[in-house]
Structure formats: C-alpha cells, structure tokens
Amino acid sequence: MDFLESVRQPPGMPNLQTNANVSGEFVMRVGIPHTSGKLAFHAFNEGYAAMVSAGAFWDPRQGKFRLPEATDLTELDFALDSAGFTAMMLWNAKGRQAGMAGVYPWSYGQYVELASVSGASWYAQPDMCVEKEIAGDQDAIDYRINATATLLEGILRVVYAWQNELAKTCNADVVSNAIRIPVPVIQGRRIDDYLRSLDLMMSVWERWQPWIDAPRLIGLSSVCRRTLDDWEEGLYAILAGLEGRLPPEAALHCCSASKVGACRTSKCTTGSPGQNRWRLTSEHG
Predict the structure, then answer these.
(1) Interior CA angle at 280 toward 194 and 142, to 5°?
(2) Which of 82, 129, 234, 251 sits CB 3.0–4.6 Å from 230 for a disulfide?
(3) Are strands 78-81 and 49-53 parallel, antiparallel or unpaired?
(4) Are 95 and 101 in contact, with CB atoms under 8 Å apart?
(5) Do residues 216 and 251 touch, judged by C-beta distance below 8 A?
(6) pLDDT tens digits, 172-198
(7) What is the pTM for the complete model shown?
(8) Alpha-carbon separation of residue 179 from 42, 223, 277 (angstroms)
C-alpha cells in the first residue's frame, strides 16, 4: 500500500499489531542515562543503538516528562526503558509515589505519551524488578512477578483506549503508528520464576488478540546482577529453561546482560530463519 492509498483508508482500529521490528541480527544497545551530552553524541557518531531510561526524561519538580528541544537521540535507534529498578529504589527510599501502582512517579498516560512522542524504536512495559536489593525473599519475588503482569494489563488498557479514541477520525495505519504496543517483560530469580512470569504475561497478552499480534520482542529483566554459569540462577540456565517456551517468532532483549559478560560469549548468537531461541538483543551501560 502506497502513501496515498494509506491516507485514503477509512477510520478504524488496527489489528495484529507488532510490538517491535526485530531483525535476525544480534543488537547491542548502549545504555545512555540522560537525554543529551557526550554519551549521546558519541553514540550518534559511532552509530550505536541505544537504550534510554524513562527517568532521563522525567522532571520531578514539574511532575512531567520533558523532551529536549534538540538531542542526538533523535538520530539514533534507541529504545525506551521503563526505569523499573530506579522506581523501586525511589519507592523504597521515599514510600508511595503518585504514579503507576504507587511505585512509579509517572502515570500510565504520561508514560504512553512519552513512548509515542519520543521517537523510540520500541518501549518496555512498566515492570517490578526482583534483584536481591529489591526482593529479599520468595514472597517478594512472587508479588513482583504478579504485579508485572498487572502492569502489562494496565498499560494495554490505556493503549487500547487511546487508539480507540484516535480511530474515530484516523485510519488504522495512523493509529498504530501514533500509539504503539509495548514490549512485555518477564521477571524472576530462578527459571521457575521466569516460566511463571512468562505464563502470566502470555495470559494477559492473548486476551488482547487479535488487536495485537504475538509479541515479537520480550524483555528478560533482572539479569544484570547475576552470574552466567550458576546452575539455578545463572543467565545460561535461564535462557536454557526458556528454550521452546517462547512464542515462535519472539526474540529476547536481555536487560544489561553485558554486565555479566553474556555479550562476549557464543551463547548470544542468532538463530536460523524461523528459529528464535537465541535471537537476542542486549544493552550495555
């Protein structure tokens, strides 16, 4: 469909929307903790893909996200992280916040708007991480796994409502490009945790089909502070345990996996066409 045919389409809701465009290549994203400056300029100069935290755009004094008037990020392939770890640390330090789940300082609507206008290639759902600094026992881990699935349901409801309103006057292509579908995230400490999180995530996701298609990218969170080889909690054990359980076309984004050295190993390889099990993206920062 060419541009003229697209704009002539009648108003309506899109169906089978993908949450990210994923190639068969391994993608390393550099973490950038701010919206401008030397790191963003260097990433632009070197042509790096990037990962930027939503917290970098947040102005706590104004209680809203602020986009810089000019930034090298607009020239980058960058993805948007929900800043779940930072939000949990803030909640631990200062108590209940004004936004999502009483943990985030920003609301669903503010986050969806940021994802829509920032120019990010894709954005991660809000989640609750389970690093040991945050979740000290299995009850805390289980709570945060459940809460991550609940946050996914919440953000999908907001995206659907906004798309439904926009669809009254805009065609499906405009709607899907203006307000996009998030990348879901799975959480855990051990493989059984991740498998339960995956099941919960898919039970939420499938309720919204065929408005959305099966996820093409899934975030594997809470991995940056673990070893590679531990038989129960190591990254290799987690990836092996997920083998055969992911949706057929899905790739994994391993959040900060380079901090445990995963990007330097042969385990981070791309599968042959139609095989996604080791189709990974990662970030370093």
Answers:
(1) 15
(2) 234
(3) parallel
(4) no
(5) yes
(6) 999 999 999 999 999 999 999 999 999
(7) 0.88
(8) 29, 29, 29
Distance between terminal CA atoms of the chain?
A: 40
d(CA 85, CA 277): 26
Task: Give the Å distances, CA to CA, from 260 to 17, 18, 214, 228.
Answer: 33, 30, 29, 6
Q: For the chain, what's the residue count?
A: 285
Q: Which amino acid is at 9?
A: Q
Alpha helices in 23-137 (DSSP H): 38-46, 84-94, 108-117
In the chain, what percentage of residues exceed pLDDT 90?
54
- Which residues have a Cβ under 8 Å from the Cβ of 253 and sit 6 or more positions away? 79, 124, 183, 217, 218, 219, 220, 280, 281, 282, 283
| Residues ≥6 apart with Cβ < 8 Å to 120 | 52, 78, 79, 80
Neighbours of 115 (CB within 10 A): 25
- Torsion sign (Cα): 228, 48, 110, 167: negative
Cβ-contact 86, 55 below 8 angstroms: yes
Tell me which residue of 250, 251, 222, 249 sits closest to 238, measured CA to CA. Answer: 222
| Token output for 6 | 């697209």
Q: Kindly give the residue spans of alpha helices, DSSP state H, lying in the chain.
A: 3-7, 38-46, 84-94, 108-117, 138-166, 172-178, 191-207, 235-242
